[in-house]
């Protein structure tokens, strides 16, 4: 065959996505935002609807040898709600499609759905449709979430301005360390099935990995305080990667401070135990589903005393670049790592 | 283990879906319709948004040994647009998620997307988001489509009334016969890879299988003629199955006439060649993506001369049951077969 064949690994997942997105056109005026943010934005009268979707595959995004089905169902919803939160919107509806193989019992599918329904209750959303089908291989879960916000109050990645303050919620790196612990215990178990997993001292980090919670609480609080962030994302790929998105789309630079980065003691201790640099875990660990956002300085007073919002730096001119000031007061350039889902991916 | 284990095959795909749906609650007033129709219906000011989703897996819903990727991309969009059409709505946006294994070249993914983009152009819709990830096994495509219609003009399965006329568009059974031909040629090819497939005389039926077209033309024409059907579905599982949905949700019966059922000559001839009953193919063949709908008798005059709408029967009282009057003027009870996606499924 003389046809050109380019391996996906040669251009990487992001390269592939860029190449596919280049050819996509927007035809309708009521598509206010298509591809390129945490969710798409559609006109709906005096409101906008925001729409996001995620596709999760067994063996790629989750491992049923340690992810309980109830938790998995909850997480599959939460990761989509997190994208709705990142638009400053309130989630309203989800569709849920699953593909399951015959090796699943009805009771197992019900456990998965019990987790989905628990998340629907927790986030006050309706399951409005979906598709249930068989799979010849692993479990597949595809969820689309729809949210709503008053027109003009939706928050994009592109609105950060020089001197805005960079905020993050909660703490970071926990989900990555949880994954490390679970993978290690799995290996131990595979080598000797009679060994009981040693997880008691890691419940915080394994919980962050197995059952993350989207920060809708923060979105409701920002509303009550009258604060609309200038830009926002959820931390799914890692803090550094998300800051790169804000900088690229807002055409700004950023400076953050190592000593301001929030890390839980258990995350820190686990990183040390695994011979990993805790700050690298904070910067590049994915799946924490916290929010990173920028606010105008005038709003700082309203959030200053919030126990779960951390002020980690400020927005600079684009030409100033992207830096972290270390504890030893050295400015090091930030690198976006993000998650790589294609084995052999070069980017 | 003492836990109860029920095999999916014991209760069937529909039994499983019923069991899962029982536990789903609707919490929001603006969810006008959740599960139970071709699409969900959401309030959006003076309009409603309709939302539908489909999950397609290699080896279950398509076979890459004969489905060209370009056609597959087009079809994946068309089957969702068909659900939007079945609500009497105009499609506006889709999200597209795909999972691909490394055995795909970038060019193959681009061919799939070229089909998706061709469908987006054909149906005048925007691709507003999605997810691209890797798969350890086959190709997975998940599409969610969003459409819009003036509030009150959306059409449910539940609005058919006694004496309404039952209409179907186009012709039926072709996609099923196309599948039979493609499967036979695949077997021949597997047995002897030097054999060229003999497909020339089957282009209509294979085309119906590989690249179906959603009947948006009919939706636009009904609008121009001022006709709002009283109930509507698209023929994805087979005519009999779709009529059962209308009867169940509208609490009516139906009588259709064998001699009115539309079948193309090539579909008929192919069925005979395969020793299949052509009328069974029309009644139970899935994936034709034609529309079946009911209209009030007062609207009959407006559609009477339409070359592609066929009047196949009428709606009766629920207690009258569901019957087909054969060419020999015998009334036989209709049976819903539908598609079965779970191997070993008993329903």
From TrEMBL, chains A, B:
It comes from Echinicola strongylocentroti. Residues 36-149 form the PurM-like N-terminal domain. Keywords: ATP-binding, Kinase, Magnesium, Metal-binding, Nucleotide-binding, Thiamine biosynthesis, Transferase. Mg(2+) 2 binds at residues 54, 83. Mg(2+) 4 binds at residues 38, 52, 83. The lineage of its organism: Bacteria, Pseudomonadati, Bacteroidota, Cytophagia, Cytophagales. Transmembrane segments: none annotated. Mg(2+) 3 binds at residues 38, 83, 234. Its EC number is 2.7.4.16. NCBIfam families: thiL (TIGR01379). Belongs to the thiamine-monophosphate kinase family. Residues 213-324 form the PurM-like C-terminal domain. Reaction mechanism of ThiL seems to utilize a direct, inline transfer of the gamma-phosphate of ATP to TMP rather than a phosphorylated enzyme intermediate. Gene3D superfamilies: PurM-like C-terminal domain, PurM-like, N-terminal domain. This is Thiamine-monophosphate kinase.
